[in-house]
Amino acid sequence: MSSFLHQRPLHNILTDQYPLSPRSPQNSQKPSILFNRTSLVLLLSLLIVLGILFPWIQIPQGGLFSSSISSSRSGNPNFSESKWRAYTLSEAAANVAKNNTLIVCAVSEAYLPFLNNWLISIVRQKHHDQVLVIAEDYPTLFKVNQKWPGHAVLIPPALESQAAHKFGSQGFFNFTSRRPRHLLQILELGYNVMYNDVDMVWLADPFPHLQGEHDVYFTDDMAAVKPLNHSHDLPPPGKKGRTYICSCMIFLRPTGGAKLVMKKWIEELQAQPWSKAKKANDQPAFNWALNKTAGQVDLYLLPQAAFPTGGLYFKNPTWVQETKGRHVIIHNNYITGFEKKIKRFRDYGLWLVDDHSLESPLGRL
Protein backbone atom coordinates (compact mmCIF):
# COMPACT_ATOMS: atom_id res chain seq x y z
CA MET A 1 0.00 0.00 0.00
CA SER A 2 2.87 2.41 0.77
CA SER A 3 4.09 2.26 -2.87
CA PHE A 4 0.76 3.68 -4.03
CA LEU A 5 0.85 6.41 -1.43
CA HIS A 6 4.23 7.64 -2.60
CA GLN A 7 3.39 7.84 -6.33
CA ARG A 8 2.77 11.15 -7.95
CA PRO A 9 -0.87 12.26 -7.42
CA LEU A 10 -3.16 11.65 -10.40
CA HIS A 11 -4.22 15.25 -10.68
CA ASN A 12 -0.69 16.21 -11.71
CA ILE A 13 -1.01 14.07 -14.83
CA LEU A 14 -4.60 14.84 -15.72
CA THR A 15 -4.94 18.52 -14.85
CA ASP A 16 -1.51 20.16 -15.05
CA GLN A 17 -1.81 22.73 -17.82
CA TYR A 18 1.81 22.53 -18.83
CA PRO A 19 3.30 19.12 -18.07
CA LEU A 20 7.03 18.94 -18.70
CA SER A 21 8.62 16.88 -21.47
CA PRO A 22 12.35 16.12 -21.45
CA ARG A 23 12.46 15.85 -25.25
CA SER A 24 11.76 19.41 -26.35
CA PRO A 25 11.84 22.73 -24.49
CA GLN A 26 9.14 23.91 -26.83
CA ASN A 27 6.61 21.50 -25.32
CA SER A 28 6.86 23.34 -22.04
CA GLN A 29 5.07 26.30 -23.55
CA LYS A 30 1.78 24.57 -24.55
CA PRO A 31 -0.52 21.83 -23.27
CA SER A 32 -0.03 18.21 -24.39
CA ILE A 33 -3.62 17.35 -25.26
CA LEU A 34 -2.74 13.98 -26.80
CA PHE A 35 -0.91 12.89 -23.63
CA ASN A 36 -3.81 13.89 -21.39
CA ARG A 37 -6.38 12.07 -23.50
CA THR A 38 -4.25 8.91 -23.67
CA SER A 39 -3.76 8.89 -19.89
CA LEU A 40 -7.45 9.38 -19.33
CA VAL A 41 -8.33 6.47 -21.64
CA LEU A 42 -5.83 4.21 -19.88
CA LEU A 43 -7.14 5.17 -16.46
CA LEU A 44 -10.75 4.54 -17.44
CA SER A 45 -9.77 1.15 -18.94
CA LEU A 46 -8.01 0.20 -15.71
CA LEU A 47 -11.04 1.14 -13.64
CA ILE A 48 -13.31 -0.94 -15.88
CA VAL A 49 -11.03 -3.98 -15.56
CA LEU A 50 -10.87 -3.62 -11.77
CA GLY A 51 -14.65 -3.28 -11.63
CA ILE A 52 -15.02 -6.58 -13.44
CA LEU A 53 -12.36 -8.50 -11.49
CA PHE A 54 -12.76 -7.07 -7.98
CA PRO A 55 -15.86 -9.11 -6.99
CA TRP A 56 -13.93 -12.29 -7.78
CA ILE A 57 -10.81 -11.41 -5.80
CA GLN A 58 -10.65 -13.33 -2.49
CA ILE A 59 -9.67 -10.98 0.29
CA PRO A 60 -8.38 -12.59 3.51
CA GLN A 61 -10.62 -12.28 6.53
CA GLY A 62 -9.77 -9.00 8.24
CA GLY A 63 -8.67 -7.22 5.04
CA LEU A 64 -5.91 -7.23 2.46
CA PHE A 65 -3.22 -6.66 5.05
CA SER A 66 -4.60 -8.78 7.93
CA SER A 67 -1.80 -11.34 7.67
CA SER A 68 0.98 -8.80 8.00
CA ILE A 69 -0.88 -6.97 10.77
CA SER A 70 -1.39 -10.12 12.85
CA SER A 71 2.23 -11.08 12.30
CA SER A 72 3.54 -7.72 13.45
CA ARG A 73 1.28 -7.80 16.52
CA SER A 74 2.62 -11.18 17.46
CA GLY A 75 6.21 -10.12 16.98
CA ASN A 76 6.65 -12.97 14.53
CA PRO A 77 6.83 -11.67 10.93
CA ASN A 78 7.19 -15.23 9.60
CA PHE A 79 3.88 -16.43 11.05
CA SER A 80 1.83 -18.51 8.63
CA GLU A 81 -1.61 -19.93 9.39
CA SER A 82 -1.26 -22.52 6.63
CA LYS A 83 1.98 -23.77 8.19
CA TRP A 84 0.33 -24.43 11.55
CA ARG A 85 -2.77 -25.97 9.99
CA ALA A 86 -0.48 -28.56 8.42
CA TYR A 87 1.60 -29.06 11.60
CA THR A 88 1.24 -32.68 12.71
CA LEU A 89 1.32 -34.25 16.15
CA SER A 90 4.43 -36.26 15.27
CA GLU A 91 6.23 -33.07 14.18
CA ALA A 92 5.12 -31.19 17.27
CA ALA A 93 6.12 -33.98 19.65
CA ALA A 94 9.56 -34.31 18.06
CA ASN A 95 10.11 -30.53 18.33
CA VAL A 96 8.98 -30.16 21.93
CA ALA A 97 9.81 -33.40 23.80
CA LYS A 98 12.67 -33.40 26.31
CA ASN A 99 14.03 -36.66 27.70
CA ASN A 100 11.40 -38.37 25.53
CA THR A 101 8.69 -36.73 27.66
CA LEU A 102 5.89 -34.28 26.90
CA ILE A 103 3.77 -32.19 29.24
CA VAL A 104 0.38 -31.85 27.57
CA CYS A 105 -2.81 -29.88 28.07
CA ALA A 106 -5.90 -29.53 25.88
CA VAL A 107 -7.24 -25.98 25.58
CA SER A 108 -9.99 -24.08 23.82
CA GLU A 109 -9.90 -20.32 23.29
CA ALA A 110 -11.99 -19.49 26.36
CA TYR A 111 -9.38 -21.04 28.65
CA LEU A 112 -6.32 -19.15 27.38
CA PRO A 113 -6.07 -17.14 30.63
CA PHE A 114 -5.87 -20.40 32.60
CA LEU A 115 -3.29 -21.74 30.14
CA ASN A 116 -1.15 -18.68 30.78
CA ASN A 117 -1.48 -19.03 34.55
CA TRP A 118 -0.52 -22.72 34.39
CA LEU A 119 2.44 -21.96 32.12
CA ILE A 120 3.87 -19.36 34.49
CA SER A 121 3.95 -21.95 37.27
CA ILE A 122 5.70 -24.46 34.98
CA VAL A 123 8.26 -21.87 33.84
CA ARG A 124 9.24 -21.48 37.49
CA GLN A 125 10.03 -25.22 37.60
CA LYS A 126 11.98 -24.99 34.30
CA HIS A 127 9.86 -27.54 32.43
CA HIS A 128 8.00 -25.22 30.03
CA ASP A 129 10.19 -26.17 27.04
CA GLN A 130 8.54 -29.59 26.93
CA VAL A 131 4.95 -28.29 27.07
CA LEU A 132 2.74 -29.12 24.09
CA VAL A 133 -0.63 -27.36 23.93
CA ILE A 134 -3.27 -29.39 22.12
CA ALA A 135 -5.44 -26.66 20.65
CA GLU A 136 -9.06 -27.67 20.30
CA ASP A 137 -9.86 -24.78 17.92
CA TYR A 138 -7.99 -22.76 15.32
CA PRO A 139 -7.91 -19.43 17.20
CA THR A 140 -6.04 -21.18 20.02
CA LEU A 141 -3.67 -22.90 17.59
CA PHE A 142 -2.79 -19.64 15.86
CA LYS A 143 -2.53 -17.48 18.98
CA VAL A 144 -0.20 -19.86 20.83
CA ASN A 145 2.04 -20.43 17.80
CA GLN A 146 2.20 -16.71 17.05
CA LYS A 147 3.54 -16.10 20.53
CA TRP A 148 5.38 -19.40 21.06
CA PRO A 149 6.07 -21.09 17.70
CA GLY A 150 5.78 -24.85 17.58
CA HIS A 151 4.23 -25.37 21.00
CA ALA A 152 0.63 -25.83 19.85
CA VAL A 153 -0.88 -28.45 17.57
CA LEU A 154 -4.44 -29.18 16.50
CA ILE A 155 -5.54 -32.80 16.14
CA PRO A 156 -8.50 -32.78 13.71
CA PRO A 157 -11.38 -32.38 13.73
CA ALA A 158 -11.34 -28.94 15.30
CA LEU A 159 -14.05 -27.89 17.72
CA GLU A 160 -15.89 -24.61 17.34
CA SER A 161 -14.37 -21.77 19.32
CA GLN A 162 -16.92 -20.96 22.02
CA ALA A 163 -17.25 -19.62 25.51
CA ALA A 164 -16.17 -21.83 28.40
CA HIS A 165 -18.35 -24.92 28.61
CA LYS A 166 -20.23 -25.48 31.84
CA PHE A 167 -19.34 -28.65 33.73
CA GLY A 168 -21.92 -31.32 32.93
CA SER A 169 -22.91 -29.81 29.59
CA GLN A 170 -22.72 -31.64 26.28
CA GLY A 171 -20.07 -29.18 25.12
CA PHE A 172 -17.94 -30.04 28.15
CA PHE A 173 -18.36 -33.76 27.42
CA ASN A 174 -17.47 -33.30 23.75
CA PHE A 175 -14.35 -31.41 24.76
CA THR A 176 -13.06 -33.74 27.50
CA SER A 177 -13.99 -36.98 25.73
CA ARG A 178 -11.29 -36.30 23.11
CA ARG A 179 -8.58 -36.55 25.78
CA PRO A 180 -7.84 -40.33 25.72
CA ARG A 181 -7.51 -40.31 21.92
CA HIS A 182 -4.96 -37.50 22.10
CA LEU A 183 -2.99 -39.30 24.80
CA LEU A 184 -3.12 -42.64 23.00
CA GLN A 185 -1.70 -41.06 19.84
CA ILE A 186 1.21 -39.64 21.82
CA LEU A 187 1.87 -43.01 23.44
CA GLU A 188 1.82 -44.66 20.01
CA LEU A 189 4.58 -42.23 18.98
CA GLY A 190 6.69 -43.61 21.84
CA TYR A 191 6.68 -40.70 24.31
CA ASN A 192 6.07 -40.46 28.04
CA VAL A 193 3.29 -37.97 28.59
CA MET A 194 2.07 -35.97 31.57
CA TYR A 195 -1.44 -34.60 31.13
CA ASN A 196 -2.70 -31.62 33.17
CA ASP A 197 -5.89 -29.63 33.15
CA VAL A 198 -5.01 -25.95 33.00
CA ASP A 199 -6.91 -25.06 36.19
CA MET A 200 -3.82 -26.32 38.00
CA VAL A 201 -0.76 -24.57 39.44
CA TRP A 202 2.66 -26.12 39.98
CA LEU A 203 4.30 -25.22 43.29
CA ALA A 204 7.21 -27.66 42.84
CA ASP A 205 8.67 -30.08 40.31
CA PRO A 206 6.39 -33.14 40.04
CA PHE A 207 8.84 -35.43 38.26
CA PRO A 208 10.71 -36.61 41.38
CA HIS A 209 7.39 -38.08 42.58
CA LEU A 210 7.02 -40.30 39.50
CA GLN A 211 8.94 -43.08 41.16
CA GLY A 212 9.52 -46.49 39.60
CA GLU A 213 8.54 -47.61 36.11
CA HIS A 214 4.78 -47.92 36.43
CA ASP A 215 2.41 -47.73 33.45
CA VAL A 216 -0.08 -45.15 34.74
CA TYR A 217 0.23 -42.55 37.54
CA PHE A 218 -2.83 -40.66 38.84
CA THR A 219 -4.30 -38.79 41.81
CA ASP A 220 -7.21 -39.48 44.14
CA ASP A 221 -10.09 -37.03 43.82
CA MET A 222 -11.49 -37.77 47.28
CA ALA A 223 -11.20 -35.02 49.89
CA ALA A 224 -10.90 -37.42 52.84
CA VAL A 225 -7.48 -37.09 54.47
CA LYS A 226 -5.10 -40.02 53.94
CA PRO A 227 -2.06 -40.83 56.08
CA LEU A 228 1.19 -39.47 54.72
CA ASN A 229 2.44 -43.01 54.09
CA HIS A 230 -0.75 -44.16 52.32
CA SER A 231 -0.75 -47.02 49.82
CA HIS A 232 0.02 -46.28 46.18
CA ASP A 233 -2.34 -49.01 44.98
CA LEU A 234 -5.62 -48.25 43.23
CA PRO A 235 -8.08 -47.39 46.05
CA PRO A 236 -11.12 -49.62 46.60
CA PRO A 237 -14.37 -48.79 44.76
CA GLY A 238 -16.81 -46.35 46.33
CA LYS A 239 -20.61 -46.37 46.54
CA LYS A 240 -21.06 -46.35 42.77
CA GLY A 241 -18.97 -49.47 42.37
CA ARG A 242 -15.95 -47.63 40.99
CA THR A 243 -13.06 -45.59 42.27
CA TYR A 244 -12.96 -41.80 42.35
CA ILE A 245 -9.66 -41.07 40.61
CA CYS A 246 -9.09 -37.68 38.97
CA SER A 247 -8.67 -37.68 35.19
CA CYS A 248 -7.07 -34.23 35.27
CA MET A 249 -3.52 -35.17 36.27
CA ILE A 250 -2.15 -38.33 34.63
CA PHE A 251 1.35 -39.53 33.78
CA LEU A 252 1.72 -42.35 31.24
CA ARG A 253 4.64 -44.33 29.94
CA PRO A 254 4.43 -45.70 26.35
CA THR A 255 3.76 -49.24 27.52
CA GLY A 256 1.18 -51.80 26.51
CA GLY A 257 -0.53 -51.32 29.87
CA ALA A 258 -0.93 -47.55 29.48
CA LYS A 259 -2.23 -47.96 25.94
CA LEU A 260 -4.70 -50.56 27.16
CA VAL A 261 -6.10 -48.12 29.73
CA MET A 262 -6.49 -45.39 27.08
CA LYS A 263 -8.28 -47.78 24.72
CA LYS A 264 -10.58 -48.93 27.49
CA TRP A 265 -11.26 -45.31 28.43
CA ILE A 266 -12.34 -44.62 24.84
CA GLU A 267 -14.62 -47.67 24.91
CA GLU A 268 -16.23 -46.58 28.17
CA LEU A 269 -16.90 -43.10 26.81
CA GLN A 270 -18.59 -44.61 23.78
CA ALA A 271 -20.68 -46.85 26.03
CA GLN A 272 -21.71 -43.93 28.25
CA PRO A 273 -22.44 -40.99 25.92
CA TRP A 274 -23.81 -37.68 27.12
CA SER A 275 -27.56 -37.27 27.31
CA LYS A 276 -29.93 -34.81 28.99
CA ALA A 277 -30.91 -37.48 31.47
CA LYS A 278 -27.34 -38.57 32.18
CA LYS A 279 -25.00 -35.61 31.97
CA ALA A 280 -21.82 -37.64 31.67
CA ASN A 281 -18.24 -36.40 31.76
CA ASP A 282 -14.95 -38.14 31.06
CA GLN A 283 -13.96 -38.97 34.65
CA PRO A 284 -16.35 -41.89 35.44
CA ALA A 285 -15.26 -43.56 32.19
CA PHE A 286 -11.60 -43.16 33.19
CA ASN A 287 -12.32 -44.80 36.53
CA TRP A 288 -14.13 -47.71 34.90
CA ALA A 289 -11.17 -48.13 32.58
CA LEU A 290 -8.78 -48.30 35.54
CA ASN A 291 -11.01 -50.68 37.48
CA LYS A 292 -11.51 -53.05 34.55
CA THR A 293 -7.82 -53.22 33.60
CA ALA A 294 -6.30 -53.13 37.10
CA GLY A 295 -5.15 -56.74 37.00
CA GLN A 296 -3.33 -56.22 33.69
CA VAL A 297 -1.76 -52.81 34.23
CA ASP A 298 0.84 -51.46 36.69
CA LEU A 299 -0.96 -48.57 38.38
CA TYR A 300 0.44 -45.99 40.84
CA LEU A 301 -1.51 -43.61 43.09
CA LEU A 302 0.49 -40.42 43.65
CA PRO A 303 0.89 -39.05 47.21
CA GLN A 304 -2.05 -37.00 48.40
CA ALA A 305 0.09 -34.44 50.21
CA ALA A 306 1.87 -33.57 46.97
CA PHE A 307 -1.15 -33.72 44.65
CA PRO A 308 -4.22 -32.72 46.70
CA THR A 309 -7.65 -32.32 45.21
CA GLY A 310 -9.26 -28.89 45.42
CA GLY A 311 -11.82 -30.24 47.85
CA LEU A 312 -8.99 -30.77 50.32
CA TYR A 313 -6.51 -27.96 49.60
CA PHE A 314 -9.04 -25.14 49.47
CA LYS A 315 -11.35 -26.41 52.21
CA ASN A 316 -9.14 -27.82 54.94
CA PRO A 317 -6.70 -25.14 56.18
CA THR A 318 -5.59 -27.33 59.09
CA TRP A 319 -4.43 -30.06 56.71
CA VAL A 320 -2.74 -27.48 54.47
CA GLN A 321 -0.74 -26.16 57.42
CA GLU A 322 0.19 -29.67 58.59
CA THR A 323 1.46 -30.62 55.11
CA LYS A 324 3.11 -27.28 54.30
CA GLY A 325 6.15 -27.69 52.06
CA ARG A 326 4.90 -30.95 50.54
CA HIS A 327 2.44 -29.52 47.98
CA VAL A 328 3.45 -29.93 44.32
CA ILE A 329 0.44 -29.43 42.01
CA ILE A 330 -2.77 -27.76 43.20
CA HIS A 331 -5.98 -28.48 41.31
CA ASN A 332 -8.71 -25.85 41.38
CA ASN A 333 -11.61 -28.29 41.24
CA TYR A 334 -14.58 -28.87 43.56
CA ILE A 335 -15.89 -25.59 42.21
CA THR A 336 -17.62 -24.75 38.94
CA GLY A 337 -17.64 -21.55 36.95
CA PHE A 338 -14.91 -19.69 35.10
CA GLU A 339 -15.00 -16.55 37.26
CA LYS A 340 -15.35 -18.50 40.51
CA LYS A 341 -12.18 -20.44 39.75
CA ILE A 342 -10.27 -17.23 39.02
CA LYS A 343 -11.51 -15.62 42.23
CA ARG A 344 -10.46 -18.61 44.32
CA PHE A 345 -7.02 -18.64 42.73
CA ARG A 346 -6.73 -14.92 43.49
CA ASP A 347 -7.85 -15.43 47.09
CA TYR A 348 -5.05 -17.98 47.59
CA GLY A 349 -2.37 -16.03 45.69
CA LEU A 350 -2.35 -18.53 42.82
CA TRP A 351 -3.69 -16.33 39.99
CA LEU A 352 -0.25 -15.44 38.66
CA VAL A 353 -1.21 -13.67 35.43
CA ASP A 354 -2.19 -10.47 37.28
CA ASP A 355 1.39 -9.58 38.17
CA HIS A 356 3.61 -12.11 36.41
CA SER A 357 2.28 -12.49 32.87
CA LEU A 358 5.67 -11.58 31.40
CA GLU A 359 7.07 -14.78 32.89
CA SER A 360 4.89 -16.77 30.50
CA PRO A 361 6.17 -17.63 27.01
CA LEU A 362 2.82 -16.25 25.80
CA GLY A 363 3.21 -12.92 27.57
CA ARG A 364 0.06 -10.86 28.05
CA LEU A 365 -2.95 -12.26 26.20
Describe this protein's structure.
- With 365 residues, the chain is of the alpha/beta class.
- The protein has two domains: 2-56, no CATH class; 82-359, Spore Coat Polysaccharide Biosynthesis Protein SpsA, Chain A (Alpha-Beta Complex).
- Helices cover 39% and strands 11% of the residues.
- The protein is built from 16 helices and nine strands.
- It has helices at 2-5, 10-15, 33-53, 66-74, 81-85, 89-96, 112-123, 138-147, 170-176, 179-188, 256-271, 282-293, 310-313, 317-322, 338-347, 353-356; strands at residues 101-107, 131-135, 152-153, 192-196, 200-202, 216-220, 245-252, 299-301, 329-331.
- The strands form two sheets. It has a seven-stranded mixed β-sheet, sandwiched between helices. The protein has a two-stranded antiparallel ribbon with strand order 5-9.
- Helix 8 links the parallel strand 2 and strand 3 (152-153).
- The model is unreliable at 1-35 and 53-74 (pLDDT under 50).
Flag low-confidence runs: 1-35, 53-74
- Shape field: globular
Strand content: 5-15%
CATH fold node name of the largest domain: Spore Coat Polysaccharide Biosynthesis Protein SpsA, Chain A
The CATH architecture of the largest domain is Alpha-Beta Complex
Instruction: Write the element-wise H/E pattern from the N-terminal end onward.
Output: HHHHHHEHEHEHHEEEEHHEHHEHH
In CATH, the homologous superfamily of the largest domain goes by the name Spore Coat Polysaccharide Biosynthesis Protein SpsA, Chain A
The helix/strand class is alpha/beta
Work out the helix count: 16
